[in-house]
Amino acid sequence: KCTFKTTVKGYFDRHLLKHPEVASDFKYSICIHCNATFVGKLSLDNHVLRRHPEFVASVTSKQHECTKCTFKTVLKSEFNRHLLKHPEVASDFKHSVCIHCSVAFKEKRTLDDHVVRKHPEF
């Protein structure tokens, strides 16, 4: 029996790829540059940004670009989490901090998912 838990739908969808008996119900996006498979267009676009930056023009999802470094993503939650790495920007955010390991998150739902995955005993 699988014990995977998450509060984030995207993580759950990606995890289901490990279970072929249910994975056939999903629409896949395949990278034309390396044949990697993803659940959904956002994941594919994020992959292209990171692994194939020379083809960034093919990314149709909205891109979030850090003004302090070269980081780019199409996932708003990932962008917000990245901003916490820059103290001059991070101070503008209210942080949700894990009481078990002190990792900071911008969104409470991301903190909740972290606790479920990293600290299941609580």
How would you describe this protein?
Residues 98-119 form the C2H2-type domain. There is one protein chain. The chain is an alpha+beta fold. It has one domain. 38% of the residues lie in helices and 11% in strands. It contains six helices and six strands, in the order ααββαββααββα. The chain has a two-stranded antiparallel ribbon. Strands 3-4 form a two-stranded antiparallel ribbon. The chain has a two-stranded antiparallel sheet with strand order 5-6. β3 and β4 (72-73) form a beta hairpin. It starts with 8 loop residues before the first helix and ends with a helix.
Please describe the structure with a list of short key phrases separated by commas or semicolons.
122 residues; 6 strands; flat; C2H2-type domain-containing protein; Znf_C2H2_type
Q: What's the overall average pLDDT, rounded?
A: 85
Helix content bin: 25-40%
Q: How many structural units, i.e. domains?
A: 1
Uncertain ranges: none
In short:
This protein has helices at 9-16, 20-23, 41-51, 76-83, 87-90, 108-118, and strands spanning 28-30, 37-39, 64-65, 72-73, 96-97, 104-105.
Present the secondary structure layout.
Elements: H1 9-16, H2 20-23, E1 28-30, E2 37-39, H3 41-51, E3 64-65, E4 72-73, H4 76-83, H5 87-90, E5 96-97, E6 104-105, H6 108-118
